[in-house]
Design brief:
It is built from ten helices and eleven strands. By secondary structure, the chain is α/β, with parallel strands linked by helices. It has a domain at about 1-125 and about 210-295: Metal-dependent hydrolases (TIM Barrel, Alpha-Beta Barrel), CATH 3.20.20.
């Protein structure tokens, strides 16, 4: 099953999916660009639905303004399935003292948010979001990933990984898969377009993990032209069934409905046609529909 915010759904009901995005996101390191407006979130979700979208996976983890209370209403209003996340991001994204407070009980927090509810809500998370560092895994990242592995083994929930500038994905697999025995099919490696090393991507695919690409990205615009080439290299090597694509809208400015864009609709209005022209409709269907249905399915 897939754990959406209004209840568990069969994988074949997920539909056309933005596999990595944010309806709500708030951190002290990005003042003035918070995603914290419910009406704007509804407008962006409606715009995505108008482009053909049916599901959005919100990777916003614990402590960064997920607005779990608002997610069921947005899903009901728009008809778009939403998946929420537990987990923990890089330490510097949180207020002073927050990480030290929650670190000793992370596995307990993750498990509760996956099985009981987020905060005072009855909204349960559908994935565990963690984060690596730039080319290395620091002690914080390793602590969080160990807690994530514990929660995964207790629930079967998938683990989604923020890779700083697309790096250290091999180190993540060394830890989560080789050391902590998380099945590679339960690991989603994010932001790989930000480090467009096609040979490196092939080596990750060979290890059995999901490969998630974001596009477009204001913070990493220089890598956008490489996105389709990276997808093509993996598809040509037989890994079209391991690819995911998301918008990763992290600021109010980047929204399509209420900001400067391009926002979530860009995935389907612009990138999907490019993928179809370059790689064919079958690969596009895999990236947006059949792959997410498998990647976000819980396995025990």
């Amino acid at each position: 099953m897939i754990r959406a915010v209004i209840g568990d759904i069969p994988p074949d009901q997920l539909g056309i999916t933005d596999s990595h995005d944010h309806l709500f996101f708030r951190t002290p390191v990005m003042p003035g660009q918070e995603l914290d407006d419910v009406e704007a979130a509804v407008a962006e979700t409606q715009a995505f639905a108008a482009a053909g979208g049916q599901a959005i996976v919100q990777w916003t983890p614990h402590g960064l303004g997920r607005r779990a209370d608002a997610l069921p209403g947005i899903s009901t209003t728009t008809g778009v399935s939403l998946i929420a996340a537990t987990g923990l991001h890089r330490a510097e994204l949180y207020p002073d003292g927050f990480v030290d407070q929650v670190r000793p009980k992370l596995a307990e927090i993750f498990h509760a948010e996956l099985t009981v509810g987020i905060g005072n809500s009855q909204v349960r998370a559908g994935l565990i979001k963690v984060a690596g560092g730039y080319h290395v895994l620091d002690s914080h990242a390793r602590w969080v990933m160990r807690a994530a592995a514990e929660a995964h083994h207790a629930t079967g929930a998938p683990i989604a990984v923020h890779h700083e500038l697309g790096t250290a994905a091999d180190a993540v697999l060394d830890l989560l898969v080789d050391e902590l025995a998380v099945p590679p099919a339960s690991v989603i490696l994010g932001h790989l377009n930000r480090f467009p090393d096609q040979r490196g991507h092939l080596e990750l695919a060979e290890r059995g993990a999901w490969l998630a690409f974001d596009g477009p990205s204001r913070a990493n615009h220089a890598t956008d032209p490489w996105l389709i080439n990276c997808l093509a290299a993996l598809a040509d090597a037989g890994y079209a069934d391991r690819l995911l694509l998301g918008g990763d809208t992290t600021t109010a400015r980047a929204r399509g409905a209420t900001g400067e864009g391009p926002g979530m609709p860009y995935l389907l209005a612009h990138l999907r046609p490019r993928i179809e022209r370059r790689l064919g409709a079958q690969v596009a269907d895999a990236v947006f529909t059949s792959n997410p249905a498998r990647a976000f399915d819980w396995s025990v």
